[in-house]
Write a structure and sequence with these properties.
By secondary structure, this protein is mainly alpha-helical. It has a domain of 81 residues. 40% of the residues lie in helices and 5% in strands. A 3-stranded antiparallel β-sheet has the order 1-2-3. The chain starts with a helix and ends in a 14-residue tail after the last helix.
């Protein structure tokens, strides 16, 4: 009688195979619009990078949020803020200005805030690994 009790107790202590606690992302993207754990982590890393590069916290979060959508839609546009060639933090400069096509000489490679915060297709962009 005790053997049967031990088996029943061990079965009760194990979660069901379809328990959401085993996979916290089971109800997240791509199964719904909710962010999954990797999207949340990437959002946080991006927002921190954007603040370090001169964006205020609200703008950094807004841009990082926009990039979640960009990634889900396989959009190939990039922000200057996520490019390894971006130099400085207000004012900004493009370190790959010739390839990017933003200037014809180095002295003119300064970037306006609106351009740095804009999703765009840039032939000279190279994302920073996060």
């Amino acid at each position: 009688m005790q053997v049967g009790t031990k088996v029943a107790e061990s079965q009760k202590s194990q979660p069901a195979a379809n328990d959401a606690a085993l996979d916290p992302d089971s109800y997240c993207w791509p199964h719904s619009s909710a962010w999954n754990t990797s999207e949340i982590a990437l959002f946080n890393r991006r927002a921190a990078l954007f603040v370090r590069r001169g964006a205020d916290e609200a703008q950094a979060e807004k841009l990082a949020d926009r990039l979640v959508t960009r990634d889900r839609e396989d959009d190939d546009r990039r922000l200057c803020l996520e490019c390894r060639h971006l130099q400085g933090a207000t004012p900004w400069r493009c370190g790959n200005w010739c390839m990017a096509g933003v200037a014809v000489r180095s002295g003119d490679a300064g970037l306006a805030r609106d351009m740095v915060m804009l999703l765009q297709r840039c032939p000279g962009a190279h994302s920073i690994p996060l």
